[in-house]
Amino acid sequence: MSDARNTSADDSGFTTRLVALVRKETRQMLRDRSNLMVGLLLPVVLILLFGYGLSFDVRDAPVALVIQDRSETVSELVSGLRGSPYLDPVDVQTMEEASRMLVDGKVDAIVQIPGDFASRQVKGGAQVQLVLNGVDSTTAQTLEAYVQGAIATAMARQADRGGGMATGTVTLMTRTWFNEEGNSRWYLVPGLVVLIMTLVGAFLSSLLIAREWERGTLEALFVTPVRPLELVLAKLAPYIIIGLIDLAMCIIAAVVLFAVPIRGSLVAIVLVSFLYLLVSLLVGLLISGVTRNQFAASQVALLASFMPALMLSGFVFDLRNIPLAVRIVAEILPATHFMGVIKTLFLAGTDWGLVARNSAILLGYIVVLTFLTRRTLRKRLG
Amino acid sequence: MSDCTVVCEGLRKVFAGADGRPFDAVHDLTFSLKRGTISALVGPDGAGKTTLMRMVSGLLKPDGGSLEVLGTDVAADPQAVQNRISYMPQRFGLYEDLSVQENLDLYADLHGVPQEVRAERFRRMLEMTDMARFTARAAGNLSGGMKQKLGLACTLVRVPDLLLLDEPSVGVDPLSRRDLWEIIEQLIASDGLSVLVSTAYMDEAGRCDDVLVMDHGRLLAQDRPQAITARAAGLTYRVTPEPGTPARDLQARLIDAPERVVDAVPRGGAVRFIRQSDCPADGMADLLQGRPVEPRGEELEDAFMLLLRQHDAPKPNAPRDAAIPEIRLAAKEDAAGEAVIHVRDLVRRFGDFTAVANTSFDVRRGEIFGLLGPNGAGKTTTFRMLCGLLPATSGTLEVAGVNLRRARSEARRKIGYVAQKFSLYANLTVRENLEFFGGAYGLRGTVLKQRVHAILDQFGLDGAAASGALPHGYKQRLAMAAGLVHAPEILFLDEPTSGIDPLARRAFWRTITSLSQSGVTVIVTTHFMEEAEYCDRIAIQDAGRMLALGTPRQVREQAGGESVDDMNQAFIAIVEQGRVKGRSAA
User: Fold this and answer.
1) Which parts of the sequence belong to the ABC transmembrane type-2 domain (chain A) (predicted)?
2) Do A9 and B83 touch (CB under 8 A)?
3) What is the pTM (predicted TM-score) of this model?
4) Within this chain, do residues B59 and B191 fall inside the same structural domain, yes or no?
5) Would you put residue A305 in left (φ > 0), alpha (ψ -120 to 50) or beta?
């Protein structure tokens, strides 16, 4: 029976071993239903939740109208407000009542038109008072813009009819590029790709090495010709497939469900997403290898990758407005670099310079993380 | 190339101890192992066996000395060594969600076993392990013994230049253990393997060419088993206890005199003991109290105990020598003989699977009752029903006079339970753990304080020590203390001695004997058949059925005449008879 002896004393078994390990990881993944649920079902939930549930647009916001001037000018002005799809005006007699409604949360804003509006308008210097509920500052700002817009439109219409009498008035012509409608969904959905890649990548892979430590499977595995790098590569493989399926779901949902345009190159989108997926999987693996405990690893993965990606990558908040210290942290996050390029690719078009620069950054992360993860699988115990 | 597989000189490994101070897990080890031999590594828990195995396999870096494996310096090039050896760790991590065949394929691929060799090798391994029928079954659904066999098969998918087995038979029942060794010996014979195997069983060590005895990281002896056995020549005796008294009482008396008696264990209704060499042969009349003594042939286990005791002697405060707890609990002494556990026609089904079928027995107050059986026999299920952790499907079950089907919580206050995996809080101190468990059983205020104080004293535990940092034997002691803190009438112990060494087991059983003498009823499950000798009565279960019930002597007699002395043989015989009967009935 000595023919089975020493068949693997060299490195030539790399492919055999890698294929065996990939097969093992794939089987384990497919047989672990909870992992598959997180990998395939959770992204669907997130797409629907963020796509339909999360929006900064305000529609049919209740606004109290306190009209103390019954002139025609005013009713024309008010009809502008009533016609807006974003506002739902309610007539209220007194300012006191309107304030009470604002305090009770029945209305989001009060528009008060004083009794001398028409007379002042003739003289110039007519005033409309807008009271906003500043508790939700985002909604307040949006409402302010809507009310201003509606009033400005109404005034412009009057001026038109007056035969362009408004000499000396500067008119601001606004045009929004890339997201012409100012639709927040356009803004959020490309970012969703980042969130899902982060969650699926880091969370799922964070369990992989820790599970082997916990179940004691690594000790026997270490005393075989297997190399640490082979373990890392094999663990990535099946989850890359899951990640790519998720990516496809995100892109299809973006185009079909949310009508988000893809103005840049689809190839570039897939390329950067793939690079980011690798970064994300490696972050999870590294956490897994360092903590050696599934529970700790999944917590750390959630806190260290998903939460920052949500808060600091520019998903919601513009990074230029945040304090320098936080901004430095944001710049360290791989998600930030992916976020910048993916939004541009979806909404603006292909900026190959940006794609190249950010891909290079992600590639750098991949190299460093692979090296670090390999170190956590050095074949030593204790 | 030398004719040695392992050569080490002054080998050292330092770990941080439980108290934070570094200690030598392996201290100045010098030995060599010859090619083509099978060497056994024996020693108590914490002797450094696993540390040594891990250094040989390149998983731990030595802190001093030199270690050459197959002519290579392991520390310098562990991969070169790992390419040529096979190693089965104590907890062989099978991939539980992969099938038997998939596990085998994985290891064959990793070891680069060529396809043409593979088919024949798999066929042989599956045949030897009797697992050809189960190739498609997930490894996680195998019994404990089967998992261990599969682990061995995965380790041996190719013929290594050196095979390392770390306690392959730990926690495995006698039947599976016998199978496991048959496989190992067949492979050694056919493949000419060189093997280093660590074990807690002296009968296994006795089968090897070479035995290394370790304790506290030091090598106490290395020799042929016969030569080591000879060290106990002329010191070994057997004494028969007074009829009607349990052998363990006499055994306890002997083992309590360590300056004259090295070791004493009950066996076959009598007590075997080893005399200290500096004590004259007639110097122990007061211990024996006129009971008939006869010399008996020395065995490896005797020599092993002798070596350990000699080595331990200069350190009277070493953990396992710490005063054997003198236990006095407030149990009722008057009602001895009355049944405290009453089981009739107990049945437990899980779906269509009958885990326990029609089981009836009684346990009397103050008795030590042993529940034995192979892995998957239904011991744990029976046990959990007795403790009120699992409702019975049908049958009568009374514990301490309370019907468990009606008043479970009332019954629970009267019982103490020590699980196989102790559920202690690792980051609490010993005292905090005891206070918690006492509180959980309804003790409060000064009563709780007194009980905790008393139990710390009885078990020789340090209340301020962190529970997680205790050595295994002490953790177990703490688990037992936690089960006794509320002074229960009945103590349940699930596999208490699994994975602990002979010395710790002696100390454990000495405690049990004290408990029983103070009137506590003890129900215990165990894999170690010789431990049945400490019990007043035992029950043997297999496949959910009760195969034998009675005193150890009655059970041995039921097994058949010639194996009267050996509980292990008796057990195997009874289980096999039972299986034959079961098959013909079905």
Assistant:
1) 128-380
2) yes
3) 0.78
4) yes
5) alpha
